[in-house]
């Protein structure tokens, strides 16, 4: 078997452990403390933000303009698809004219 | 509302409602999947190896890091460790989602957690936020199309990747941050949202420049979670019996 196969296999096992691990640890506790509960409620925003922030900081005017467009559309009540398509349009437009 | 109640009772329609929720995610992830396949081939993978990686690991960012390091001839154990590091944030997803699936059988959990990728987690959290139950049929309705398309896109990218014109001009490299921004915005009604986002953003950027990628994700995330745990109103609520 090739190196790629073993890397993939080991990477898959460890990835699965991260996906079930949090639950396995937490399910050992009968009751979840309110602070833990509040922390877990913050998980989506906390994790997903870290996937955007460095990209935004590294980005040029086109990237920043695309993200700002997305924020404005969300604040105006737009859903995921309008947000995604408008931001992508701004990005592609600016990248091609700047 | 009646449609929702109906959907809860019938696994088949609940599954279909999950499939509908998966469509925008598939659109957003598609360019990334194709890009992964194309880059995998450039880094010495065959088309079937690229698809195997997508099927076994099923985690876009970690796969990108994996092929990149493989192409750079980094030691295999370090590649595996990097994949683990990129995916470490899933521990938090797993702990969070685990609260809503007490009614799943052990087998359903073992299967379900395999598919707990970023958009899957976000869709599930949004469903819970709307006050609806997180059923296994709905969950798999979201997961299976994502999974099948992800593998297929890797294959397409691997075979036809050379045909992609200018990925930079098409903005392909930046579609995922835009998509994740959309997800972040979708949670803005939650307690302490702005402080959590602000602290996560700040800490992840600092960590990105000091400690380096991919640990900035876990470090920034933990900082944001701590803000929620320490200051959210829920944290001060008396324990209920």
UniProtKB/TrEMBL annotation, chain A:
TM regions (residue ranges): 6-26, 38-57, 69-94
Domain of life: Bacteria
Keywords: Membrane, Transmembrane, Transmembrane helix
Name under which the protein is recorded: AzlD domain-containing protein
Organism of derivation: Chelativorans petroleitrophicus
TrEMBL record, chain B:
Keyword terms, alphabetized: Cell membrane, Membrane, Transmembrane, Transmembrane helix, Transport
Protein name: AzlC family ABC transporter permease
Origin species: Chelativorans petroleitrophicus
KW Cell membrane (keyword) present: yes
CC per GO annotation: plasma membrane
Family membership noted in the UniProt record: Belongs to the AzlC family.
Matching InterPro entries: Brnchd-chn_aa_trnsp_permease (IPR011606)
Domain of life: Bacteria
GO-annotated biological processes: L-valine transmembrane transport
Subcellular location: Cell membrane
Membrane topology per record: Multi-pass membrane protein
TM region positions: 21-41, 77-102, 136-161, 167-185, 192-211, 217-236
């Amino acid at each position: 078997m090739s190196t790629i196969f073993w890397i993939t296999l080991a990477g898959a096992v460890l990835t699965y452990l991260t996906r079930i691990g949090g639950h396995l640890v937490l399910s050992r506790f009968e009751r979840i403390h309110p602070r833990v509960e509040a922390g877990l409620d913050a998980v989506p925003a906390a994790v997903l933000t870290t996937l955007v922030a460095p990209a935004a900081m590294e980005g040029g005017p086109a990237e920043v303009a695309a993200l700002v467009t997305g924020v404005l559309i969300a604040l105006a009540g737009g859903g995921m698809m309008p947000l995604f398509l408008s931001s992508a349009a701004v990005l592609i437009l600016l990248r091609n004219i700047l | 509302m009646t449609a929702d109640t109906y959907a809860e009772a019938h696994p088949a329609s609940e599954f279909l409602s999950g499939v509908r929720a998966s469509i925008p995610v598939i659109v957003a992830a598609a360019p990334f999947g194709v890009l992964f396949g194309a880059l995998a081939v450039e880094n010495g993978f065959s088309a079937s190896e690229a698809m195997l990686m997508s099927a076994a690991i099923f985690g876009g960012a970690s796969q990108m890091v994996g092929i990149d390091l493989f192409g750079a001839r980094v030691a295999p154990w370090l590649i595996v460790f990097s994949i683990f590091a990129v995916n470490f944030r899933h521990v938090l997803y797993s702990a969070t989602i685990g609260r809503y699936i007490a009614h799943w059988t052990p087998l359903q959990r073992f299967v379900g957690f395999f598919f707990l990728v970023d958009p899957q987690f976000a869709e599930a959290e949004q469903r819970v936020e709307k006050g609806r139950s997180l059923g296994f049929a709905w969950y798999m309705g979201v997961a299976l199309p994502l999974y099948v398309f992800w593998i297929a896109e890797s294959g397409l990218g691997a075979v036809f990747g050379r045909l992609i014109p200018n990925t930079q001009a098409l903005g392909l490299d930046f579609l995922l941050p835009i998509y994740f921004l959309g997800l972040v915005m979708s949670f803005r009604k939650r307690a302490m949202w702005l402080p959590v986002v602000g602290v996560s953003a700040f800490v992840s950027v600092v960590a990105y420049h000091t400690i380096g990628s991919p640990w900035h994700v876990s470090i920034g995330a933990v900082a944001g979670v701590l803000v929620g745990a320490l200051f959210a109103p829920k944290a001060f609520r008396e324990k209920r019996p």
